[in-house]
User: Fold these one by one.
Assistant:
Number 1:
Amino acid sequence: MKKYQPLTIVCLLVLTTLCCSDRLSHEEAFARGNELFKTNNLRRAYSYYKRAIDINGSEPLYHWAAAKSTSNHNLVFIHAQSAWDNGLKTFDVLTVMSALSQFADSNQALQHAISLYGQIPDSAKSHERLGDLFILFSQYDSSIIQWKKAQEESPSSAICVKIAGAYARKGESDQALSVLESCRKEKQLDEQGYIALTYFLAMDHQYPKLDSVFHETYRLGLYTDAMQLEHTSFALLQRDFALAESLSTALAFIECDRLFGLRARVMLAFIYRSTNNHEKIQDLISSLDKENIRQIEGEKELYLSVAGFMRQKNNSLQMLSDARSVLPRLPFVELLYARENYIEGNYKEALAGYRNLPDFLVQYPHVLVGYASALGGGGNDEQALALLSDMHRRKMFSRNSLELFRDLALRNNLIHESVSAQAVLEKLYKDDPGVRYVSAIIAIQKGQLEKALSIVSDLYEEYPRENQFGILMLRVLYLKEEYNAIVEAVRFSEMPFSLYGSILARAFIQLGRDDQAHSTYLDLISKDESLTTLLEYAQFIVGIGDFNKAVTLFDKILNRFSADLQNDSTKYAVILNNFAWSLLQSNQNLTFAQKLAEKAVELLPGNIQIADTYATALLFNKRYRRCIKFIQSHPQGSQSITLLLHLARAFEESADINRAVRTYRDISAMLPEKQLDHPPVNSQWIDEKIALLTTR
């Protein structure tokens, strides 16, 4: 027997299939397309519908079937138009043609759709369908008029929901709720109508009414599995985890639509995450293999990620992200994704999750606070404050919402708003140490130092082991310039030296006790060589004029913290400037000092102290022309006496005596309005300088 190679066999099969397909009649091709359409194999279904059309292009059903089986909008429109032109003038075909029609003017598109509507049989026309047509073009008022007429003729829950939806899209949610409540009173709502009612009640923040709605559907025999699933969602949002678990457990493994069961199981997983119940999430994972259910791609990975969060495993967030990318878009998956990303500080991804939530869900107070927290974390304080403010105006607040609003307001220097939120917190939680602590911080910001000291001193006396109270007390004493009190307070303190060492050193500096400040800094550095500590010590060293030591310190700081500093351009510029100044004052590596100062200018071009250092470096390196050009182009070059002195010196060293004299005269004209911190520069010194230059 002759042996065929595998490739030959495949080719023969393909050819056989094509030959058989060629012999199909248009009826057989259409029937084959229908079979494939039922199995959701749309691509192959379309190929058979197209074959039927090629054989008999006048049959409108073939064109309509082809339109429904392709995702290409151009082909959908072409086939729908052909179906219509061949006599299939139905409302469904009209809807597709209207949705895809290309008109530059929306009014023209609407008029065209109405003209098509006039061509369908009278038996297919109705007020409801005309309302459906208007809604395609966002003609909400026209849709409502038609649907209300339809409701008068033949009341139904579906029409009630349509009318409510149109009002909601107009921004009239109160009217939408009123329509549904009226239909409820007239006993016109079915299961879907009641579900819509719960959404609008939630949007209107009428949460106490939700339970009565679910009880009513139970009494009316409308409490189906779908209704129970919605009840689960609302119980979960109201943080009634016991009820939510009971309801969703009963639905998680019943014979039903795959997506329905997935929604129930996802809510169970969310409950277990919220209650940190690792044992039950493990049982849920195990049950996927034991129960006779068809898993959905990504489902098991979702539950494994939840288990990982409870055990603080590093790959949990990535596993959640991977599962989310393949799972259907489900609200509680998005909420889980938002919260876990917020915990990790991934505010952009957290916001992506919150923004995917349905409006009724994100309006829940604790969800809204989470959303506002993510906005604040991502730097969008204005929107976060607006959300919280609107929530509080509706008399809906929690401790978390008030504290978040207060903290964001403080961060944006909105003292009145932060004080208002704090006043409510103090009224509700007047004995809470955390609330009292923030009262002290607000008092500091308002300049009420005596009040702040009184509050924080009492807190520290009541809670001597709470170091933040003791540190804040020392900071208030420093602001009050009570430096001896700081020295006395730390003498008997049980706080770690690493926490108060820098405040003590600064107090010694203010008291003129530099030796004790120096030894304090050395002790502090021996325990804490952080960037903050080293910088403060370096600044102290510059202040006492030990520039050689300062050079060593700044070099150490740059080498050790270079990567961190480059993320903070302001701090980096200041360090480069001070390093350059120390090099200049110690007469070390002047060329390197100029490079450091130049980099600092690039980072903070408007800073006058940095400009002073750079001009000084240019003079030290005898780069007079560059110094002149730099100062003349600087925004404050003609207003700063310091920079003008450098300019005059540069002209003088360049032998441009006339311009040097004019510059010194400009400086003299600015005195004494602008005093200098550099003796012996004063009017007499400048006059002597001008006299010396003009008598050469």
Note: The chain has 41 helices and no strands.
Number 2:
Amino acid sequence: MKPHPRTKSKSHLLLTLTATLLTWASTSSMVLAEDIIVHRFNTAATAANWTKWWGAAATTISHDANFDAAGNIASGSLKVVVDFNLATHGGDNQFAIRGALSGNGDLNALVVDASKYARVEFDLYCDPGTPMRPWGDYGGLDVGLVPTDFSQIWLTNYGVQVGWQHLSIPIDPAAGNLSSIGGLVFKMWSGDAGWGQTGTATFWLDNIKLIPIGFITDFDTDAYVAGGGFWNWWGGAARTVEWDSTKDADGDVASGAIKISVDFPGTGDNQYSQGMSLSGSGSYNSGVVIATPNFSRLEFDLLWDSASTLPVETLNDTGDPQGLGIGFASPTWGQTWAPNANQPRVVADGAWHTVSIPLDPSWPNIPGLVFKKWFGSGPTGSMVYWLDNVRFIPSSAAIPPPTMSLAKARKGLNLFASQPGGQYQRQGIQAVSADYVWWIGNPNPVTYSLTIVDTPPGPDFQTHVFLVPDGTGNAPDYSAPHAIMLDIRRQGESGGVALFRSKTNQPTGNSQMYNEGVLASLSDTTIAGTWSLRFVNDTNVTITGPTGVSTNFTMHPEAAALFMPLFNMYTIFGVQPNQAASIGGASVISRIRITNGDLTVVDDTFPEETLSADWENRLDSPQGLFVVTEEPAYWISWTLPDADFTLQQAHKLGDAFADSTLTPLLNGTRRHVLLRKPEVLDQSYFLLQKPAP
């Protein structure tokens, strides 16, 4: 089974076992981001940057201090008045105006490579007295870039409507001559003999921006708040999110920032989680998605309110995560948390600070951000901070090719924490046959047991049993008011520990489970083997470990009585990673058993590749459940990103490789395939293939 490297060609590497792995990759790079360029027309002098370029239609350009897209009395806009006359001007019935990016009229004073920019944005107002075209718009406005050689690169033609309009026009990176852009051009041609316009057209332009690739928003307006781009994701701490026009990281009086205020009560569900869609258009909206492999880091500007009563030391050094608490939403709206070492540390000096958080190219693509802090019981106080200028910085590094590996698959139920970015994902199965079995008021003892074959290394990954009266969903330990969890984790290299966690009267929260709700713990010298939770009667409980060690404890009668269901006892066996590094790990369970006195309710050793009717999936990621029925079996897996790579297979060396019929599945920051018989017993060779550029 030892891999043997063999060179097949300059672009191929071959590894063999009984299954063979091969990868090929090309290199690619991204440019570094540029600064955002903004023309707000705050002063009369800004009009001098713009000049009529061509066209027979008389055109006047001026600054209008009384008209601003945001209604800002300290700003203004660029007013353009055009006298169209088809009869007089014929085919030259048009206008074009040009402005320099520098703002001083000189195309060479500020020159950019527009391939590093994503779009041109601006606000446009059309006076209703402007002559209309027969099909109902008020002219076709061409928008273009001006290179320093005074040519034009046209981006779009927009059918103008009356009133304020916000336009966002993408820049095609494949367009030629983008490397030396010094200005912008706006043009309207109306020389068609059939529909050409005659009359006075009046337009206002405001907030013209050249937006770098990866730039999300500078919070010019309250659009992200008004559009539902921020939402309360979870947590019991009271919080407000509002747009504040009095704060701006750049001191721009025509812009603003987002203000987030949180009050931590010190008890109950003492945490908050605030979501932000990058699109700014509603919660869980994927209108804007950052392709993580193409970007190196997230940046934003942060200002801490020194009047906050929560000490910055408490914020920076305690809780989860430590520091401010920033996470990245995945396409399925799980969360990937920046490691504590990369979390922003708040500085309470009354100044704006730029925060920079590195991205891992294997993380899922990003449609949103999450701002979160969990304290559990203890810390109290208020915190207030402002956010501005959210941007992702393109990467200049080559995207690494995927690397492949092979691991033995263990026989039994394999439950993977497969959801990308899902640090607190629940991956489980519900015992349907146990719905009508509970211990409260039962003359018989009720026992829940599971036999663990293996779990990932480290103390974070948990294998659990949930017992929830009248529960629903995949995370009843959080959502339901009353819940019990037997939480089993590694202790040291090979030992195990089981904790009995409980909560009562705490819907949409679980802080009790990690504080006063821990009623007992049991350590054993091994995690592999059978763990059981036995309710002798309403209040007396026993936990037993794989070597036969046990502990007994008593629940308070009033708390125990709350676990009498009205309808069913929701019983789930599952896993949860708890740390980003544990995503992609799996627990292997060879047997699950539930007894009610002498009656066996469930006894499953998972002999088939599909689950029996005793089970319903309670999976945040359906790709995380496998049943391995025979050994030998193996996992082929590889790292992400793997764009354009295809798994191929051949039955012997020398045969042509063809696309494999096996389906790779996403598993956290990797993709994997289970090799069962006959793939394992028959000699097979596998490779990842990417076409050469």
Note: The first strand starts at residue 6 and ends at 9.
Number 3:
Amino acid sequence: MPLGSRTEVRSVSILVHSMIPFAVILAALLTHTGAQPSPVLPKPGATAPMPRVDTAKAVAPPNTRPDSLAHARLEGSAPGDSAIKADSGSRETAEAKKRRAAPVFTWQSPLRDIQECPGGMESAPECWRRSPDLANQEVGWAGTRAWTLSLTHWRPLPQESPYFPFWSHSPYLSGGLLPPDRFALGRIGGDLTSLEEAWTPVVPLDTPVTRMDWMRGALSLNIFDLKLNRMLSDRVYLGMDYYSSTALAQQYNYQFNVHQPYLGGWGFLGRLYPPIDRDSASLVLEDTSFDIHALHMRPRVGVWLDTNRVVEFFLDRVSNSTSLTYPYGRTRPSGSLIPAGPDSTQALMPSDLKTLTEGAIYGESHAGWTSQMELSHGAMDLSEFRKSGSAKSSNTDEIHADVFRARGSLLATGLPFQPMLSAEARSDQWEGDPLLAMAGTNPTEGWSDAEGADLEVRPVFSFLRLKGNAGIGRSSRMDDKVYWLPRFGAVAGLDLPYGFGAEASASTRREDPEWEMLYRTNPARFRFASPELLPRTDQTLRGSVSWAWSRLAFQAGIDRMRGEDAWLPRVLPNPGACGALADSIYAPLAGRACGDTSGSLPDTLALGMRNYESEVIDAWHLGLGLGLGNWSLSLDNRFVLNRTVDDPDLKATLEDWSVPERVFKGRLGWKRALLDDRLKLDLAWDWEWYSTRYAWVPDLAGGSRVGKLDEYLALDFNAAMKIKTFTLFFKVRNFNHDRYATEPGVHPPGINFRFGVDWTIFN
């Protein structure tokens, strides 16, 4: 049987079997007429408050029919009222209309611990960059390699959305996507596992809502975000989200002919941190800005089947033609496709992503439980730069992929321990001409399947809080290998008198690499095919103590992260990486002597991944929260004590220098309300400091060298003035004018200024 036929049969079979439980649940919910869709708020102890929209005109009438919305419209009398007949027998009297009760629409997401996103956002990462477990993660301009780095494992965090299934395939990750309204962090025990955009249907309101965000910045940066919510009838709504982000690639050169005291000196702070204790004239201020052409549209049409049951149909269109940066910026030959230039200049690489996702979401909320189910299909066309060369086919990848996905979740706040059940089935199919490796061949089409289910409970006993997770996953590869992926976790928290608290957690989870990591070679994305990789197992132990009183809070904790069969480069990046070859099994593989960090290794050793027996990272963290008057301060500092890698094939224990030893993150804010809260001022400084780390830097010609990512301080300033629903904001990015790299070849621009408006209109 041809590979395409086997792929299609396998994918359809997996999808059909995975959809059976969802179809049964959906049929039961749609035919369910006995339960009352009561708009009562969840019982005390529920982790996520139930959002509710009330027209404030009257209380919803008792539900004696399957459709309480129709019941409210047709009968329309308040509880206890006697029926009033109109004089014509078919019309309501004016008194009856006046006393008619308006329906109360209720929706509660089955996701836990949902967080709202602030206004005036320029990108999706800015929504969640304030979370203490995530890095600030903005990389230069919105739209380019903006990622979500978990400070619990120091690696990118998988991202999920009911609308966009291509996070892991996108070369821009979070960049160039619609800023979400709400999000939630998934956890197994105390370990972060995912970041998910929360689905929110349009709830019927008395007036439509329009929200506009517009921002301008240096180097032709222009960002526009529009959100429209409209009711087309009593039950049918229309939602339209539109986001565009553009900037032009151009050389920039900041000229400073005199000493700039606000960019140098810094007094005793400069002596504590030498990189900022310098005159601005010594800075490297010449570079190439990113090229951005991102467009994201999401039309949605929903129908409220009842005041607590809703179904939504959506389309999600992404077009992102943003240039990446060449990771190794050395001088190139004149005939190269990559512009010549020293390391201080970024060369740009064209990359193009187009996706279209269509699907349906069904949600139902009750006082004791809520559920959400999704069915979607997505198509992706991806064109990515791979290496230098004269023929187009030799330096770009062209891939078309299809994703079929079914997901469902159920949160029962009315049951003991508040259980939450979720399940997902996903099938990926692709075809094209990427550079692949599988059993000595280079196939032009392939597939992968994955399924999983998880259960979480949260018992609460007075001052003791407990949480338990258990789940199982299944991964099927295109080389006919199948792996089962169990995961477990537990958390125990104590709420003690006088504001004291303590928490301990443990977790273990097994994870299988995606097909791109297994089979695809693309040095421009730091990839080299490693089809022999086995699933890894992450184990974490965490403990912390805390104290909070009034506006003062303190937290300290220690973590141990152990990875079995850890995925790491065949030769670990560190200052002595090349010399280490002589004392390992890789000596005959290197092919030549390599005694210092200036040497280059083949991509098979530098970018290729293998399973190491174990990696252990021991760390501790300190957190501080302080409020005084209109001021607030939050600090989150993390320190690595140990980052060792062990394997029988190594002659000695090695250190993982790709993990930073220290990460300091903080925010200093000032807020004040004036004119009876009609005018609100909000100023804030955000910073993040990373210590030195190392990574392999490919030259796109088959070799890689060790690159040093120097310590850096990313300092941002934000100011906003809100007048009712209108907000003016001003932002300064890279305020201290630092020249740094968040990953090899990616240099955010120097100090740059941005301004814009955020306006919510109730019309």
Note: The first helix runs from residue 3 to 30.
